[in-house]
Each structure stands twice: as C-alpha cells, then as structure tokens.
Specification:
This protein is mainly β. Helix content is about 15%, strand content about 40%. The chain has 2 domains: about 1-35; about 40-109, no CATH class.
Length: about 110
C-alpha cells in the first residue's frame, strides 16, 4: 500500500504492507516534520539544521525569529528521529521542549 501524506508544506509518499505499517510511518513523519510553530514565541519562521561536532551530528529545528531550538534525538534502533521533550533526568521541558540560550545567565531556558 502507498499513501501520500502532507504535513504543512511538506509531502511524502509512504509505503507499508499493512495499515499498521502505514500508521507507524505516518506517525514517525508527523512527529518530526509536523512541528509548525516555535514553542517559545509561536513563530512559523523555522529552519531544519544539522550540526556536526567532533564526529557527532545534532539535529534541531531552529526559530529564526527568537533563536529558540527544538533538539531531536536519534533512536538507537533504526536511526529514526524524535523530538527531545524531556531533560537528561527525564523531566518534561517547558514550551514543548523548545529551549533558548540566555547569554546573561549563561543557561538554557
């Protein structure tokens, strides 16, 4: 089976053998590409960014208006992406995981 799924301005053709397979693939696509507004300021002026540091790649969605970012983790199995909505201790982050560096306090808010 094939389905074309549109999320915002993006479209993707998704294939799966069963409805469950399609459902999983659509859910994965929407989780990463379904974010349409900054969690800090509400802007729709977003950009997908991949940074490399010391051989590691970091995936994030960046707000071009306020500078906030939503980081994405990589699944150990399968390599898919997921939005980081919790901190290292497992606590939910405010603003749906969107964080912003504060140069005055030198902390992430």
């Amino acid at each position: 089976m094939k389905v074309v799924k549109k999320v915002g301005s993006l479209s993707v053709e998704i294939e799966g053998e069963t409805q469950k397979d399609l459902f999983k693939e659509i859910a994965s696509f929407e989780e990463v590409f379904g974010v349409e507004a900054c969690g800090k300021c509400g802007s729709h002026n977003l950009r997908y960014v991949v940074r490399e540091n010391d051989g590691n790649e970091y995936y994030e969605l960046r707000c071009l208006d306020c500078g906030a970012r939503l980081g994405f983790g990589v699944n150990k199995k399968g390599g898919g992406l997921f939005p980081r909505r919790k901190d290292a201790e497992g606590n939910w982050l405010p603003d749906g995981g969107w964080v912003k560096w504060n140069p005055k306090t030198k902390t992430i808010e």
